[in-house]
Design brief:
9-stranded antiparallel beta sheet, 33% strand, 29% helix, Pnp Oxidase, Chain A, 6 helices, alpha+beta, binds flavin mononucleotide
Amino acid sequence: MDKLERYIEQLREDFTSGAFSEKEANENPFSQFHQWLQQAVDAKVTEVQAMLLSTVSQDNKPSSRIVYLREFENNQFWFYTNYNSRKAQNLQSNPNASLTFFWSELERQIRIEGTIQRATAEQSDAYFNSRPYESKIGAWASNQSHLLKSREDLEEKINQLQKQFTPETIKRPEHWGGFVLTANYYEFWQGRQSRLHDRISYELKNNEWNISRMFP
Ligand SMILES: Cc1cc2nc3c(=O)[nH]c(=O)nc-3n(C[C@H](O)[C@H](O)[C@H](O)COP(=O)(O)O)c2cc1C
């Protein structure tokens, strides 16, 4: 075993900073999410809006990648991406997906599951229009998840697009926009000592959220 493998093998992070119980859990999981997100923002967690999005392909192969949470409201969570990307192709054939946040500074993980649909064109336009010019050009230039011959090819494409579109004229391309996940399951995880973590889940059944505790 080399030094790096030994180092990784012996790492033992013990979680000691908090606890989470059914008694403290808000009866509404979205309010609970809101509260933990606020605490993460207050604690200046790095990349607090980064979440792992997991999708499943038509032939049942899972894949995951980080995307940024951009809006959230009433059990709905929005992110923006390319509609021809691998994740978008997955979501077209299977709308079930999950989002995972890990805020190491607070020793917390939140898992959210649900179904995803496209955001409205108005919403995607509004978000696109709020982005810096360079990001707008990037959305036009990137054929996300498809093969790119070289970095130079991408830069050449960007140069051409900068001549084609000014900051005043650039509009959202049709292949780019938002998705929104509507949650039907949440799990709030608080790290505890000796791996005896707290896990509180919320499952939506007959329009009601059922709260349970799970073994760690
Ligand atoms: C911190 C971070 C934030 C990211 N945010 C986004 C995002 O909001 N939208 C997006 O399409 N890709 C984002 N990405 C890139 C994705 O992880 C991924 O590489 C890309 O979306 C292609 O994924 P796909 O081929 O599975 O569709 C982000 C990556 C990182 C590391």
